[in-house]
Amino acid sequence: MKIDLHVHASERSGCSISSEEEIIAMAKTRGLNAIAFTDHERLVPTARLAELNRLHSPFRIFSGIEIHTAEEEDILVFGIQDQKLESMTWPYADLHRFVRARNGFMVLAHPYRYRETINVDIARYRPDAVEARSSNIRPQITPRILQAAETLSCAILFASDTHNARDIGTFHIELETEAESDQALVSLLRARRFSCRTLQATS
């Protein structure tokens, strides 16, 4: 199951120029089987998520969110459909406790994108994974990210960080088996039953 886990749609992310339907259509064209919408401080409403999955089955749309913490690091969260996540004031330690208590999955998104350091205590509050390749990660930064992930014994993820449908799937993961729910996705991610993939995008 090929899935892009870092996707922004214009319906909820003002920085995206592509709509849900444009992104889904391109994802299908690129041979993906699923995506996760991870809009900035916005979850896909439950009813809309169900509608998208009904309209596009067997293609799968998962729920996620990207949270900009008080320390100005970005965290992807999966497996939790709770509007409390949409707060724009999360300190990282509080977010970590919140996600852990609800059995969610946390990814440190595009580390070192804005600065030479990581501004949250990932040694004490370890994420489940670190994003090592995306459209917002310079290739020369990837070795540093991989070293950080190894030090933490974290998984690494590839994801496109799509803000334009043309980028969908350029980096993605391939799950070892199908995930039929957000909880199943989290279980596969936590068990590291996936591999990282790249795709040459075409316009």
Q: What's the oligomerization state?
A: single chain
Count of DSSP strands:
9
| Backbone CA Rg | 15 Å
Strand order of the largest sheet: 7-6-5-4-3-2-1-8-9
How many structural domains can be distinguished in the coordinates? Answer: 1
Order of helices and strands: EHEHEEHEEHEEHE
Provide the structure class: alpha/beta
Poorly predicted sequence stretches spanning 5 or more consecutive residues: none
| Residues in helices, as a percent range | 25-40%
Give the biggest beta sheet.
9 strands, mixed
CATH topology: TIM Barrel
Number of alpha- plus pi-helical segments: 5
Provide the β-strand percentage band.
15-25%
Give the structure's gist in a few sentences.
By secondary structure, the chain is of the alpha/beta class. It is built from 5 helices and 9 strands.
